[in-house]
Amino acid sequence: MAKSVFFFGDGQAEGDPKRRDVLGGKGAGLAEMTSLGLPVPPGFTIGTDVCIAASRTGAIPADVRADVDAALARLEKTMGARLGDAAAPLLVSVRSGARASMPGMMDTILNLGLNDAVAEGLAGKTGNPRFAYDAYRRFIAMHAGVALGVDKEHFDRALDDARGRVATSKGIDRTRLNAEELKRRVPDADIPAEELRDLVQAFKAIVKKATGKDFPSDPREQLWQAVGAVFASWNNHRAVVYRKMHDIPDDWGTACNVQAMVFGNLGETSATGVAFTRDPSTGEKKLYGEWLPNAQGEDVVAGIRTPLPLRTGDRGTKADESLEARMPEAYRELDRIATTLEKHFRDMQDLEFTIQNGKLFMLQCRGAKRAARAAVRVAVAMVGEGLVTKEEAVLRVDAGSIEQLLHPTFDPNAKKTLLARGLSASPGAASGHIVFSADEAERRAGQGKPVILVRVETSPEDIHGMKAARGILTARGGMTSHAAVVARGMGKPCVAGVSAVAVNYEAQTMTVTVYDEAGLPKQHVTLKKGDIISIDGGDGSVYADAVPTVMNVPGQEFEQLMAWADAQRTMEVRANADTPLDARTARAFGAEGIGLCRTEHMFFEEERIQAVREMILADDAAGRAAALAKLLPFQREDFVGIFREMRGLPVTVRLLDPPLHEFLPTEAKQLELLSKSMGVPVQKLAQRTKDLHEFNPMLGHRGVRLAITFPEIYAMQVQAILEAAVQLAGEGISVHPEIMIPLAITRAELERTRAIVDDVARAVTGKDGKPVAFSFGTMIELPRAALLAGELAQVAEFFSFGTNDLTQATLGLSRDDAGKFLPAYVESGILAKDPFVSIDQRGVGALVEMAAGYGRKQRPGLKLGVCGEHGGDPASIGFFQRAGLDYVSCSPFRVPIARLAAAQAALTVRGSSAGHGTA
Ligand code: PEP
Ligand code: MG
């Protein structure tokens, strides 16, 4: 294999930090920090290609093993210590690290290199046997869990037994305490060295019983097992689920970092923690994070102890709890390093550090995950600070995530019953039924129920439940706990560390201690599974019952970013809007027109449906004309309302599309009513209704096919559109309607419908006697339309790709039923994404490109847009930019997403063509 083991230490790194694809994010950060001269414990990174090779062949290639031996020898020399040497022991961590951050999804082993002799040596060398045996028991449990497949619970139980013995020796009556209370009364730190030494032997016996083999005492054997397990963890269930959710390709692999251990658990001058260079929820510029004194590695992120804030004054904690107050020198150095790294990477960083006997070490840096609000604020602030350009700022914010900013928050005027407060771990407001397990969350959400997942703390096993829930509440854990980090990434509301909540999984209840204003316990409220609560991840509040929500007003920074985005954009962004209210919302979100006004729902309103039914069931043209005459004034008012809201912006109106039978009466009462008003016997109407039934309505009498058999329907709609335009012109509002035909597949259909439109247009004139200006176009929704787009463009002046139907017809997948089996296709990787969410670029996309090419060849000025759901999906928008479309149209709420995504697509296309130019 090519070089795949990269040493870092002594101010030098072999790996190129830009090669995150090889080193993974963690490895690249360690290499970069080492090169910058920051205090990083030395080590080496085994590249991602080894993970891929190992998962293919089941073994680590021989030349890689030799390179690892060499790197280990160099590490031992640098440290003046050796793996397995009781007199000068070297302990290492073995940690995963993929190209994209996947917090907690893969495995890590700490304190590797311990056996009985080394533990004894470490105890002697540090003069701290408690520390040595604590490290040893942690190592056995971690290594056995990760590398040997032994259930973690066995070790937890043995640890609880030890805790119980300590309790008894202290005279505490343990029989009256549950496991949680016992843990509080006898924390880990109170378990003495002797007890830990016994625990090590008990742990080894557990391993022997579970695996039939002794726990490996040879540190080299430990190392290879650990490396193999870290690579294998790339394919564990939760990592696979996470990758699917975040579109991370399966063939990236993880790197494996082997690094000399430093210890944050050597006593009160040691600590461990995580820091963000800015506040990850709000984006405020200040060092932000959490720490735990006398704690090891994962304790902070694991959420087992609730960590303390870094800065004095944060979260209203007492001054003497902050790192700033307790270890001012280490704090200042951390602050200095944070500034250096942010300037160097020109992005907000997420840092992990350990303080060993007062000395600060950096263990990780990476681009920080942040809530959408923070992403926008940081991007805009960094332009002001001269760190990034406006174009970079636009590219920095994940377009999909800004939806969070546009979603509702709790109505400030609503009556609320506050139960408790926790940490505002991930912004957003949600109400739902309480569930206590991830599986239950998934099950209930699958039944369409909104749920709030309540856990003591979450772990990576809970990821599917977090995905299904509306929001997450944890009783323990801080701002960087698993729950907080993952929820922020998902854009889900999360309130963490609600210490007033006691969760009882067995009874499936949560008991909240409600405090009065003086901070004294007022009452205990017990809620059970299925009860409703509301959580506000923006301020950490937990409320009883459901709380109504109101719309959010995005801030000034958001407006600024969107203005920069609009300046970069080349595609127009329109909205799919069918009512004046939709139109108003769309404009408020920055839509530049309506790309799809569906007219069918307008026919369903109480006073209209009767006339629609009369029209469908009429025997002859005269009967149809009479019914349509009743509909005309309603329909005209619809368009007047929409055109008025859009004040001169383009509006594409699609003529009637669905199969007629959707409008038919279904109840006997409705038939009787019709019979009366039409003077036709009920039986006859019932028979006519039956005749109209279709086995496959989606492929049936719908779209333009309706106008071939009933031209009067489209004629009435066109008359309504043009008369509305005339009326508004009289008010000084110019309207240029775009009349769109659905589901066409032939030029002849378009010629026939164009003739209907022209006939009406001749009759409807403005005050000046001139016909109203409009354009005429078609949707491209079926493969034949795409294949023969050149012919359609002889008549159509614009195309709008109806990618919903085009996907359905091209893939032969029912829009309505595919949900039953499509998830299995996506989960198993047969399809990379749901093709109704993100466009199938190679299949449906090829038809879009083909139709665009044929159409423009026939009619160079042909206007091209898309109005299927894909018009609001960032990845699809990138594709439409490359395909040369003029606009995308999507639901009003997605308009800002589309504006940002279209700007990013334009910048990316420009960037890559600039790259080609200079290559
Ligand atoms: C489409 O098919 O993509 C489209 C926009 O039309 P509808 O969803 O109304 O079928
Ligand atoms: Mg359609």
Number of strand elements: 32
Shape type:
elongated
Number of helices: 35
The order of strands across the largest sheet is 13-23-22-15-16-17-18-14
Helical fraction equals 40-55%
Distance between the termini: 29 Å
Q: Report the mean per-residue pLDDT as an integer.
A: 91
Please describe the biggest sheet, giving its number of strands, its sense, and whether it closes into a barrel: 8 strands, mixed
The residue ranges in which pLDDT falls below 50 over 5 or more consecutive positions are 915-919
Radius of gyration: 33 Å
Q: How would you classify the helix and strand content by structural class?
A: alpha/beta
Structure write-up:
This protein is α/β, with parallel strands linked by helices. It is 45% helix and 17% strand. It is built from 35 helices and 32 strands. The strands form 6 sheets. An 8-stranded mixed β-sheet has the order 13-23-22-15-16-17-18-14. Strands 25-26-27-28-29-30-31-32 form an 8-stranded parallel β-barrel, surrounded by 6 helices. Helix 28 (747-763) links the parallel strand 28 (737-741) and strand 29. Helix 6 runs antiparallel to helix 8 (193-211) and helix 27 crosses helix 28. The radius of gyration is 33 Å and the shape is elongated. The two termini are 29 Å apart. The model is unreliable at 915-919 (pLDDT under 50). It binds phosphoenolpyruvate and magnesium ion (MG).
